Batch of 2 targets.
Target 1
Amino acid sequence: MRGRGDRLEAELAEKGLDRMLVTDLTNVRYLTGFTGTNGAAICGPGVRIFLTDFRYTERAAAEVSEWECVTLTGDWLGGIAERLSGKVGFEDDHVSVRSLTKLEEKLGDSVEAVPAGGAVEALRRVKDAEELAAIAEAAKLADAALKQTVENGFRGKTEREVADYFEAKVRGFGGTLSFDTIVAAGPNGAQPHAEPGPREIREGELIVFDMGAKLDGYCSDGTRTYATGDPGEEGRRVYETVLAAQQAALDAIRPGVTGEDVDQAARKVIEDAGHGEHFGHGLGHGVGLDIHEGPRLSLRSDDVLAVNEVVTVEPGIYLAGDLGVRIEDLVVITDDGLRNLSSLPKDLTYVD
Ligand code: ZN
Ligand code: ZN
């Protein structure tokens, strides 16, 4: 967590804030390292205060360094309020109106609460070395689990059975899931967010496999589409188009381009193949403590990519009632382009 409070402090100076009250638990974890379910952080020039209740005193002592740990007993909001002064940024995107009203009742007249939601999320976009290592490890673990799942075969098993096998492998390797695994065979593949069901996987189908592991709080995200035998001419053509679109996007990624630029690079390949209307979602998203965070890669994203941001690149083509193909890599933006954290092959792979 070294230096994260300093980065927030610099951000506050820029926004003209004296203090920031951080109450979103993921943001609290990011800043302080605390993994419990009740905590808040107050940051300001030379001020680093972490607050929790008696249940977490010991955990805070073990996990939180560089922040003064305070255990509040009794009046939680009162204990926070008495440590705030001047212009105080709060996370208006996470705090309920009710808690804000209650907090404001406790604040002295000299304190002004200012909406500052998104400040910590903006810092979280750029990962430090520790975070990059955790995400890379999570991706490696998930890929190893998927590799074994593929070796175990798909045909004759239900989507749910295949997903269960993968998820057991992830846990066996010491990870947890970063989201519910998607295994979508044949026509089910046409739904980008299909849930694995009781349908048996047959010969000659395309199977969309979207999966991720979580390690030390950090997520991975990746998709491969496999075939149980020849998926037919249309299936092969759609696969090649998605693969070419994905490569075009990867080639377009470098610091300074926008999320829209990268999305456009992939979308053009898909549109040129006549499938523009079959690619109904954005190209990708940031990944970190949350499975979906900034920056966004989409037609409406003016996010400018920066070194050490981690994003997915996941174009897809979905033909309703017929088939779907999605290919997703997890990449780190580098000075001269990207480093790909996804290791599994992307040529159409046939699975038993
Ligand atoms: Zn995914
Ligand atoms: Zn994704």
Target 2
Amino acid sequence: MRTLIKNGTVVTASDTFAADVWIEGGRVVALTHPAGRAHGAPADREIDATGKYILPGGIDAHTHLDMPFGGTTSVDDFESGTIAAAHGGTTSIIDFAIQKKGGTLTEALDTWHQKAEGKAAIDYGFHMIATDVPPGQLDEMARIVKEGVTSFKLFMAYPNVLLLDDQSIFRAMLRAGELGALICMHAETGLPIDVLVERALQAGHTAPVYHALTRPEAAEATGTERAIALAEMAQVPVYIVHLSAQRALERVMEARDRGLPTYAETCPQYLFLSEEDLRGKPDDEFEGAKYVCTPPLRPQHHHQHLWRGLANHDLQVVSTDHCPFCMKGQKELGRGNFSKIPNGMPGIETRLHLLWEGVREKRISMNRFVEISSTAPAKIFGLYPRKGNVCIGADADLLVWDPEKRYELSHRNLHMRADYAAYEGKTVIGAPTHVFSRGELVVENDRFLGSRGRGRFLRRSTFGL
Ligand code: URP
Ligand code: ZN
Ligand code: ZN
């Protein structure tokens, strides 16, 4: 099957140019001048992209599908989550396998393969969350890297659940450095946070907003600084996940100014939502539970710093940290005790729609939009040049993007399983009309044409930047 996307404007992280894009065998086989000659045999299918952009499919480097967390399980599995992702123009995800306390990394990887196989509708890779790093485990890291899982997430937060002490973090960093793997850090200093939570509850402060008030910016700033310092001592790169606050960003900027290989991502919720959302409604403060995620939403003034960080290359990636829970039966677990609200928000479907608002408002260029949503995660996480670019030989993971298409981000339009939408009532301008995954048209005008189980596991290369 030969497909031609004609008359569109290709946008990559570096260039914007008129071109016809030819797809065959799941790959881009030619880019030709629209007024020039056809490429070989005629196409079996033509898509007219006049007035539209042709972009590489989005890569969401931070998702939690079918993840046990906070006494429940995130409500999107690999089927619903990847179908929702495709609707939003994301064609690859990197999810997190989690080592059980006392279990092995290999067991965790097997478990996550079972969760994804036969279900995922787009391509997927895994990071490995290590919750325990005894010396024997360090050898197992090598086995995991050989399996194409080339990044490890470590936690400085959630004592007794996920938190690792500095010695374990440091050992894991050294080993990751030897293996060419990347350490992704949840950088919040978690032990004092637990004390603040305890004191808030003792004082009778049970509402969702106390989730933010007990996880202050200072906790994230010190965590970020410590993560960077440990990585500097180990002489390895580090990637800070879900960065939410100005002071944490400043720590990243200082490190990068010193020439350290420090990378960081933020998420749409930290660019568009704020602590105000956590306060809920005047007549129902528990509505704020919809917005409980970690790190917490920050006061509005942080937005401008994060946008500037994206524009100035201080932040490299926008991923979603999609970790959806329903209000009914899940977020409700924390009614009367904010610390029991499962942490996480839905977002896998709305990332590109929201980021495009940054393009419309001239906060970032179109090329930067492509870079932070696709090219940079592909490069950082060992998927480039197969993914993350529109070029000959790359997988034909492509979007036809209509910059004028209006789309309401309401629960009734979206495909994620959470029983609410975080941006209910918001209409965006700019959305995909066609989504290709390895040359297969999986979404056309909001209709899903793909199938569950067609997504392939992505064996990623080691860190090469
Ligand atoms: O609230 C969040 N972020 N839930 C997922 C777990 C994590 O720390 O990424
Ligand atoms: Zn985290
Ligand atoms: Zn996460």
